[in-house]
Structure formats: structure tokens, C-alpha cells
Amino acid sequence: LRGLYWHGFRLGDRHCKFSTNPRQAINKKFQDIITRCKYISSQGVTQEDIVKNVQELIEYKPKMIYGYPSTLSILAEYIGKNNIKELNPLFINTHGEILFPYMREMIEQNFYCPVYDAYSGEGGAVSFQCDSSEAYHIADEYAITEIVNDGETIIDKGRGEIISTDLWNYATPMIRYNIKD
User: Fold this and answer.
1) Nearest alpha carbon to residue 61 among 42, 87, 93, 32
2) Rounded Cα–Cα distance for residues 102 and 99 (Å)
3) Which pLDDT tens digit goes with each residue over 121-158?
């Protein structure tokens, strides 16, 4: 929530989630109602799905949209080609895949709002982009994140593998788990 709050989102704001994970369980459906989240499946997106999904977005008027960059860039391309201007989200939050520069440009240009990417891995902390840079800020409240190269922890800048220690999983803790990213 901290990363989303940086960009003006608040609990209770209408938002849409594009995901391939079905939200069929009663507790997930209840959660979506309580949080004002409109779940839209992005599994097997066809041309029909694209038209339907854009119409759902227009009707729901979400303050924030989040989903995979590939799905959102396909929707953005359709929105641009059809000169659709009724959408007015405050921002787009991408996650789950690499957000390539051409995808960011396509989404920002056609949704008329900024894109902020997020990153997380199995048992790891979530990281969010802020509006002042392309850097990611790690939310270390529930995991310790290390960047390691050749066995050495990178302190300031550099590339390496992400090693994570989950602070909340008491049943099966992941201690210094290499998520292979």
C-alpha cells in the first residue's frame, strides 16, 4: 500500500486488477467487493476480450489500474488505435513481468497517465517505483533483501542476484532464498 499511496491511491478507491489468477474463491470475491477492486481476467486475451475489457474500464472508472505490462500494453494499443479518451486513471501500476521501455511509453501515451512499476519475488519484499526516479524502493517491513554478486553483498550500486529472507512466514521460512532474478 505504501507504494500505491505515494501516487495518490487510497483504500476504498475504485481500482481494476488484470490477472491470470482466477478469483473464484468466496473470500477473494468478498475481498474484491470490500476493496472496490474490479477483477478482470487477462488469461487468453482475444480481440473480443480487449474490446470488452476496455468497455469495462470505461464503465467502472478506476482511479488505478494494475496488471501485467504485456496485457496493459495490448489494451493501450487498442485504446490508441481507436482514439478512446474516456479513461482517466490517476496512474497504472505494472508488476509480474519486465516492463520494457516501449511498453511504458505505449501505456502512458494511450492511458494518459504515468506508469509505476513494482517488483516482488517468491518470499521477498515488494519494491515500487516512485515518481521522482526510475529507481525501486524496497519495502523491507516483511523481508530482508540482499543483492549479491559472486558471494559478495552489493551495498550501493551494481548488479547481482536477489537473495531474500521472509520475516513473516513462520511455518516454512525462506532464509536467504535465491529467487534467481
Assistant:
1) 87
2) 8
3) 777 778 899 888 778 888 888 788 888 998 888 887 78
